[in-house]
Amino acid sequence: MLLWVLLGLLVLLAVGACVFRDLLYVAISLALASAVLAGLLFHYGANIAGVFELSVCAGLITVLFVSTVSMTKDSDQGKETRMGRGFIPLFLLVFIGLDIFIVRWLAGALPEIVPGAGSGSFQDIFWTLRSADILGQVVLILAGVFGISALFRLKAKEKKHE
Amino acid sequence: MESFIGWILLVPPVAVLLMPWASRLGRWAANTLAVVAAGLPLYFTLRLIPAVGGGLEYELFGARFALDSVSLLFLVVVNAVAFACMIYATSYVSHLGGRGKFFALLLIMVFGLNAMLLTRDLFSLYLFLEVASIASYVLVAFGLEHDGIESAVKYLLLSSVATSMVLIGIMLVYMNAGTLEFASLAAALEGTGGPVPGMLLLAAALFIAGFGLKAAVMPFHAWLPDAHPSAPAPISAMLSGVVIKVAGVYALARIFFGILPEIGEVRTVFLVLGTISMIAGAVLAYFQRDFKRILAYSSISQIGYILLGLGLGNLLGLIGALFHVFNHALFKSLLFLNSGAVQYRLGTRDIEQMGGLENRMPVTAATSVFGTLSIAGIPPFNGFWSKLFIIMGALAAGQTAVATLAILVSVFTLGYFLIIQRKVFFGHLNEKWRDIREAPAVMSLAVILLAATCLLTGVFFHSVTSGIVEPAAVILLGGN
Lengths: 162, 480
Description:
The structure holds 2 protein chains of 2 kinds. Chain A is mainly α. Chain A has helices spanning 2-19, 23-43, 47-76, 83-109, 122-129, 131-151, 153-161. Chain A has a single domain (2-71, 85-103, 118-161), classed as Four Helix Bundle (Hemerythrin (Met), subunit A) (Up-down Bundle). Chain A is flat and about 50 Å long.
């Protein structure tokens, strides 16, 4: 039952990320979808994938999106095209259909994962097994922050002059 | 001595954290911090050369990093070019603005590349590749001009395709082996003499396409001729000199000589793609008018030489390929920095509008001649020896046609680089450029350092090959 609730929530949040018109809501919806997906990955015992979905997609990416949105929102966030309202949900439905088809095919075609792979507690995986990746993620956040501030540096300067 | 590995990794990100503060103190503080932060990893890398032996390991915040001769060779390349580019950038970045941000992103790129070379885990390699890539997308667009932003988006999109393929490849390998650590992976995937599982073949194809795209090997090269010319000169030098080699060549060599050596067909793929890239890159370079675009296409051609050397799979071929990685990093960075100096003064990259700059920019002209002689493989410059090793490797492998093509392309390369020299630096001075002066002294210092290294590593090529190249080739061949 929990599984179906999580799956339903995942689809709803993914649809939300496509149809919300406020970019901040889009980023939050995407982050929640990632968090739910991480829950599903933990449910299936794919702990490493779950850890990364949670830390990178729900955490890091959201920080980057929200930073970008907050830096651009009051300047030139133009009205989004109305096409999104009708076309994106339709596209999403087709995509979900294709997705189900591909996952069913993959489930039959892929070999069994080697036993024991990805086992261990969250703490073990995050702090011991994958600690090099934490360093990478920290610098990835720095890259995002400096990248955004570099690309919007003229805008910041213009604002200062005003 | 092992702690130097930690310093190589830590110095750039610590400097990134200090950069906003240094930028507020003034231009001199930001410049000093950037040059020191790029210089220290080079110093530690050079200190590690006599100590590397059978390999070193170091634990940083619980994460294990390791150094062997292959990593060491690429570390020397990354940090030497980064140091020269950083010196050059202290002056060049003045007309772009955002000095501190530029240095910070360049240092993040250096960190990503160094960490890629020191990790022993396939997923971490992917993650650090993304760190370097994200910094490089922004740096390509750093000038905030239309061309740069468009090229950066194209680079980002094609790179995303590449990294997606790499990620799926990693997933397939993980499903088969249950581990991502290099040594355990090699042991888990060691062949039993039977056919290689289909999933591993698929993973191999994805790695070749993904990392091939990062290395800009034909036919995966479409992003490079746009991205490299549009970027600021020090970034073009880093991308062509270093990034395509670490993100592409190093990853391919590590995977197909260390983790999946059983798939012998890959060598043939390398040989074919290398030969195509070597020829097509040179031919396409000949038809360009844009100084930096010529250099970008020529990078595709030179990467072809490197891939060809890897594809030969014998000791001579591998020594040639790895030595060419080292040499190409030096002379291509030099040529890109020179093209940047010309653009900095003239404001154009169109070689048809140039001419007679040798008297106005004597340092840039002289060092460009050094770069040209190196890339064309003229003795005693470094490019001669690496190409010679590749050609000897081809002959030893019975690939006479490939060896002949490599010689012909080298002659052709000399031809189109001489055309550049004539159109840019020699002949009659275009009246428009009568008041042009030499590039700022700091920029000249960086290109003099690179030009001198091109000559010295050619004259003393034996010290370089026996010191850092041959041990790396032996490791790739499965020795210690």
